[in-house]
Amino acid sequence: MNYTVYIFYSQSKDKYYIGYSHDPTERLIEHNAGATPSIRPGVPWIIIYKEEFADKTAAIKREIAIKKMKSRKYIERLIYKYSVG
User: Fold this and answer.
1) Mean pLDDT of successive 10-residue segments in the chain (85 residues)?
2) Per residue, what are the HEC states of the chain?
3) Which whole-number Å values give the CA distances from 23 to 14, 71, 73, 81, 85, in the listed order?
4) What is the Rg, in whole angstroms, of the alpha carbon atoms belonging to the chain?
5) How many domains would you assign to the chain?
6) Pick from 18, 3, 11, 12: which is nearest to 78 by CA?
7) On the CB side of 29, how many CA atoms lie within 13 Å of its CA?
8) Given CA atoms 75, 16, 85, 83 in this order, what sign does their dihedral have?
9) Sign of the dihedral through C-alpha 26, 28, 34, 37
């Protein structure tokens, strides 16, 4: 099963949310339905970035690596490269 590292964006909060899932579209639906209390205030969220991985372990490692950067600029560079490349 493939896994996807994704970045969601909330325009209302101007915030990014990084996660992984085997079905990021379904995960987005869950988030926008309020299933995750910590990000409920940011509804609606949109998918703005995705990276595919062959296994869960690789996806988790990538998610952690992005989060460890603790950098909005880093996230925005990823998004820009994804959108133009």
Assistant:
1) 95 96 96 90 96 97 96 94 80
2) CCEEEEEEEECCCCEEEEEEECCHHHHHHHHHCCCCHHHHHHCCEEEEEEEEECCHHHHHHHHHHHHHHCCHHHHHHHHHHHHHC
3) 24, 25, 26, 22, 23
4) 12
5) 1
6) 18
7) 4
8) negative
9) positive
- Domain that residue 61 falls in: 3-84
- For 4, 19, 24, 26, 34, the CA distances from 53, given in Å and listed in that order, are 6, 13, 12, 17, 27
Phi, psi for residue 3 in degrees, rounded to 5: -125, 150
CATH number at residue 8: 3.40.1440.10
Q: Are 3 and 59 in contact (CB under 8 A)?
A: yes
Amino acid at 83: S
